Amino acid sequence: MKNNIILxxxxxxxxxxxxxxxxxxxxxxxxxxxxxxxxxxxEKISLIFEKKGEEYxxxxxxxxxxxxxxxxxxxxxxxxxxxPVREENRLLLKQLGEVVYLKATPKTIxxxxxxxxxxxxxxxxxxxxxxxxxxxxxxxxxxAAAHHVLTVDKKSIAELVEE
Length: 163
Ligand code: S3P
Prior knowledge:
With 163 residues, the protein is an alpha/beta fold. Helices cover 54% and strands 13% of the residues. It has a 5-stranded parallel beta sheet with strand order 2-3-1-4-5, with helices on both faces.
């Protein structure tokens, strides 16, 4: 029987890119929690943060996981970088499927997302420092949420799909 495969990790770790390629390879559906929320709210993430605040967005993430629990399995699910921070979400993730943490160094992340304006939490003076601080806080939570950990630095999409 098909299970879900869930990709977690920091922004820019490659969850969506690898997730789409993996879904194609397995013949699974692909779902991204950020896109699920944007569709439901009819608004981009940056505007949801701006108008309704981060807490509102975090509640939507939990809602999305609860909704997915009642859906058919056989999906590759890429989740927003901050979703596993909530303990409740970590429990939901484990019920939802096999959780894979795509682990990237702050340098890799910074190189990939510098200049990006779609991620509200990184619109700061010193994004590299912010990435290091946030990863420091989140690492333990990502590890606790995951069944498997894959390091992504210097690996191609095909290599990660294979792993
Ligand atoms: C966030 C990550 C983003 C998005 C939001 C908050 C975070 O998703 O959910 O901007 O807290 O790390 P990606 O990891 O898909 O960029």
